[in-house]
Amino acid sequence: MAVAQAFRSDWGRVVGYLIRVTGNWDLAEDCAQDAFARALERWPRDGIPTSPLAWLKTTARHRALDRLRRAAVGDTKLKELAMTAFSDEVDESGDSGVDDDRLRLMFTCCHPALSPEAQVALTLRTLAGLTTSEIARAFLVAPETMAKRLVRAKGKIQEAGIPYRVPPAHQLGDRLAAVLVVIYALFNEGYSATTGDELIRQGLCAEAIRLARVLAELMPDEPEALGLLSLMLLHDARRGARIDGAGELMTLEEQDRALWHRSTIDEGCAVLDRAIRLRRRGPYQLQAAIAACHATAATAADTDWGQIVALYDRLSELVPTPVVALNRAVAVAMADGPQAGLSLVEELERDGALAGYHLLAATRADLLRRLGRSRDAAVAYRQALELVGTDAERRYLVRRLSELAGGG
Fold first, then answer.
1. Which residues lie below 8 Å from residue 43, measured CB to CB, with a gap of 6+?
2. Which of 79, 212, 373, 400 is least enclosed by beta carbons within 10 angstroms?
3. Predicted TM-score (pTM) above 0.85
């Protein structure tokens, strides 16, 4: 559907434009939503505009102008809106070198006055149009908790008078870490959607990679910017094999590797080599190295799991999170046997940090299945089914349960 496609590609552009013009985050989101709602009404009847983005910007701007007039905000904002009435594009890159509208918005959201969690959540909401529930699942918190964080972040911007502008070039590095987190979170939501009937949202993946390319060009001496680009390319190269012709989820060892995009793998490895030559290792480079181990193995049996465990050991030192620990447990299971991995998974369960995370239960179920403990595996698969968000993952878990019941 044209409106849905426009939402995926243009939401961030429309909202960023309105924030720049009005200075009001809530007004920008509300008017952008109104513009897309009006598109749903008019485009099927009148036809798709020649430039959907220009139509959406104009419609949203008129809506904002109407609301500002009714609220009697003052002549200043009205003049700003009038000045942009015949030009949607305004060069505001200044001395930052950032000439991409959505990347400018990203650096602006990632203001150091906000907490790192608020920076990432606000950018995902504003730039990508992700729902509060989707962002909450990315942070492993309740939607109500995330909603409060978003309200506080917007309030902090208003109360502290944080300007909507790009920092000068010498300050961009201070916000790089948060920007990288945002781009990767955007990619992850596209690569493994948290909810819905689509496991893969290709538009989000493509946008995250596009932004990472712009960032790598802007900051070519930042190895972690290159590392993130490499990581996403290596993951994205396998995208076509993750779902089979019937729409069923294929695990890494089940995937048809002939469907992997070799040119993308080659590019990802080349970008990783560039990052490594800068001699400042970081988490994204380590994750990219792990992805490269998978992507360059001719078959699943050829995977160097010992090397992957060693990389996870180093990653755990830099990023000691429970999700990294869970991924390391999987690697240990493949290198040293399922019982070794299961012991680590059970430690994570006792810790409780991943309570409610469906992949913890699914991983435990898979390891129990490999150990021949079918009854315990079935219980764990059912636990994962209660927590999973996407239809493709749900069907995969049901398939595994059916195999256990049938002795497969």
1. 2, 3, 49
2. 79
3. no
